[in-house]
Design a protein that fits this description.
31% helix, single chain, nine-stranded antiparallel β-sheet, 13 helices
Amino acid sequence: MKKIGFENFRSLKNIEDIEIKPLTVIVGKNSSGKSTFLRAFPLLKQSIETKTNSPILWYDPNFVDYGSYDECLNCKAKEENVIVFRYCFEMNSKHETSYALFFRKRKQVYGEINLEITITKEKDNEYVKQINLRIDESEINLCLSKSSIFESIVINGENLTPKIELHGISINSIIPQMIAKEKDNFSFNFDLVDNNIFKILGELTRKGTKKETLELMLHSFVIGGYEKFYKSFFKRGYPATWYERVKNREKNDPLFITLYNYFILSNLNHLLAEVDSYLSTYFGQVYYVAPVRATAERYYRIQGLAVNSIDPRGINLPMFLENQSKTDFLKFQKWTLENFKFEPIVSKEGGHLSISINIDNQKINLADTGFGFSQILPIITQLWFVINQNNSRNSSTKTFVIEQPELHLHPSIQALLIDTFINILNYSADKRIDLKIIFETHSETMINRIGQQIAYNNIKNDKINIVVFDTDGFETSTTTGLYDKKGQLKNWPFGFFYPDKISNNAF
């Protein structure tokens, strides 16, 4: 994921798309929209992972609570009545999308994808109203009705809406796919589109070329921007007449443009499925840590559940640690001892678990330590185990979203946490793991520590994005702060961490 942006989403009326770097820091005064932005990550995660009747699941007790569509719609956008989610990412799909409906031979999708999903509500019906998709320089605009019927399909400005009625169907997804209803059966008739394509291919090949040959050509074209599509004209294996007639035409010949537009329409279901698959995979690998984490308890009841991730508040931390293999847990203990000068210990007593902290060979129950240990332990535990787990999904991007990691931590530990973030990012880069850490903070110590790490060449300044949120009470605005190569902040609001002047009339 390269960038994320929103329109009419609470106070985020129309903020500039925010670039997601390996380390992205969100700062700003209270109620400036920071949490709205950060919690949009688990919002999409809970929406994708839960079967719902509407595109977005606004409330999930295990993740985040946005209330409802009406509560999320910006107060100045009541007449407009739409919320827009914007995403920018690079598509280089080589995996098969198992749940895609009614498309034929699998094809690869290449290019930078800019996606806009527009959601609206009419009476009690929330639905996807519009999907705007840009692949490199090419644009696809889809409009849907409240009954999920595709009202228009426009590709590069050309209206290619079929005469048949196309319904939008979503299966555990946000982006619907197209199907046509015929005699109580749902299908997608590719022949209606392919006939137009074959007519164009027929003009560019020798008369009498077999349909099987044209189909092979069609399947060898690349789904992506027009530039990539055009380059695929010159692959080996096409009829000789094709090369002669293609070379005699300009690159932007209207016939080529029409062929490309129909080709995209022919593969539109596959393209929508691949984009939806990307979103599902990306947000499925989002790990969210809430700002109010659970306080430590002396004992935790053993529930016999398989726990493979830590919940946002760290409530199931004891069960998660108990489920780890002895080898992995010993490695984790060694890592925490080396980096934080303590090691966690999980003990069984009857039907209960307890967590203790070993500091200088002194074992202390977590409930008897300060709040700092119970606040930092869910963060570093989730980070370490996700990065060190060995499974088939390690190739996908892993995104950690953390609200106020500095809670209850002494400034020296806050600085140490930044050191840990940077060490894990460097470790992940060496292991070719695409890791992103996004956190919101009010800590001047953490901001300064990042600059110090840059100055000591432990991380490059271009790997960090720091975004300052501000608000007029109704709309959020953002500015991007920059670290230079010496770790000094540029484009930073003067006196950002300073309190207001003391009034002489206070008392």
